[in-house]
Amino acid sequence: MTASRGTVVLLGCLTGLVFLLLYGPLLLPIISSLFAVKQGAVQWDQPTLEAYGVLAQNEGILEAVRNTVTVGVSAVVLSLAIGIGLALYVNSGGGPARQLLQFLVFLPFLLPPIIIGLSLLIFFREIDFPRSLVTVVIGHTVFVLALVYRILLVRLQALSHSLVEASYDLGASRWQTFRLVLLPNLTGAMAGAAVLAFALSFDETMITILVTGTQNTLPIRLWAMMRLGFTPDINALVTLILAFTTGLCLIAARYLTPRELLIEES
Amino acid sequence: MTEITAPAVRSGRWRDLAVATGAYVLPVVFVLLPLAAFFVYSFFSVQGVELVRQPTLLNYRRFFADEIYLPVFLRTCRLCLEVAGLTILLGYPVAYLLAALKGRKRYMLLLLLLVPLLMSYIIKIYAIRSILGGTGFLNRFLMWLGVIDEPSMLFVYNLNAVLLTLTVLLLPFAILPIFLSLERIPRRLLDASSDLGGSGWQTFRLVILPLSLPGVIAAATFVFVLALGDFLTPQMVGGQSGFTFGRIIFSQFGAAFNWPFGAALSAILAAAVMVAIVIGARFGNRIAQRGGSP
Fold first, then answer.
1. What angle, rounded to 10 degrees, do the helices at A96-110 and B6-27 form?
2. What is the ipTM of this complex?
3. C or N: which end of chain A has fewer Cβ atoms within 10 Å?
4. What does the pLDDT look like over B97-119, one tens digit per residue?
5. Distance of residue B66 Cα from the nearest chain A Cα, in angstroms
6. Is residue B111 within 8 angstroms of chain A, CB to CB?
7. Which residue, among A239, A83, A77, has the nearest Cα to A155 in the 3D structure?
8. Stated pTM of the model
9. CB–CB of A29 and B225 under 8 A?
């Protein structure tokens, strides 16, 4: 793709507008978290970190953070393990049965989260499985698995088949081929998938709100807080979460730079 | 392949069977069974607080007969189509710029698009809400500019607010598929077009745009489906009047506490989503085929 200089300038302006839409709204809570707010007006001459102090003493929020991380890590580990198995299996042959399996894995990503949340909610009630963080982990895993599986499958398919054949020809077993040939080629995709899956889980609200028990994750906690109105400590929490997700994204980008994104250009 | 002895084949088959079973168990238990349970529930009913497990079509009949549900459903579909249209209009230029850029610049821009995608959904809604409200930033800004004298109610917690919020939220989902389809256009086609004397605009209109349409359709499908199932956004910025289908479903599991009816409404939502995906796939295929053999 190419574009003339004038086109690039025009496109640049339109892109600028889009980024204003995407990022502009986020500035407000960040700014309000750093200054005193009186009657809805930001007091520019009174910078303060008070809101953050209030936050650090809020045991409910700290617990929500712990829950969110626990759920995220569990969902990432589970979805990576299951995802790699499924990707290897589907990639090892064809046929309608594998198509169906793939469709099942994709379904939670294709269907609106509300439907996945509701079906799990009803399912857990039917099998008398009490709602807790475990059900949240299951919900998140089902949801992020589609993405993890897809990333791994695409990477597997991109690998030359002769690589695997060469490995077998040289006398390697299935396990050796997996560990010594496939896995090293998958690490980039796995790292990317893991970070992406964690970010998705960290942010997941619609399924969580339906399948969670009494323990809240951060988005649910925020949702409850926001219904009460705008307060400085919400803004402080929002700012911290934004900083965290941005950091996550940058870390992911650092690991994925050459192989995941720029490789397309050659 | 060299000769394989009979026992090896047999043990291979057993292993294949075991592997296959293992592969199917989890998706069947945690995806198929819950979906089946939810679908069965949509034929149950509720009496007081008791669940009645007698199959009935009452819930579906209620959806079509009642004067609330069908209109809200159709209005929500229209809203989501509008969101899809807006995101594509805003997103296409960004996708084009992305595809035109090279190296580090492209990478940075792509990254800047991915960051909001990973940011908490609920936080984005919250941030946009603080802009749209009656005493929100937008109103105060417009009053400060002198465009309006008193707070405009145009975007205050109604369907317009939902439309705007969803558009901002789902923009990255529209940009990425379009970018991918633009990226896939072989350079030689563009070279051929300019070699044959096509101007930049002609090349865009006759070569690039048609070839990127599958991406546009994928984007539209994506955004439509995501918008249709959303209940958080209307709940947070929709106010009293911004009632959408997703919100009605959600209320069946909260305040109204009618799970079977909620399940039936969700089944209708799922059907709508599938119709949208099938239409999108059909459209995309047809366009792709036409592009392949002009």
1. 20
2. 0.80
3. C
4. 988 888 788 888 888 887 887 78
5. 22
6. yes
7. A83
8. 0.82
9. no
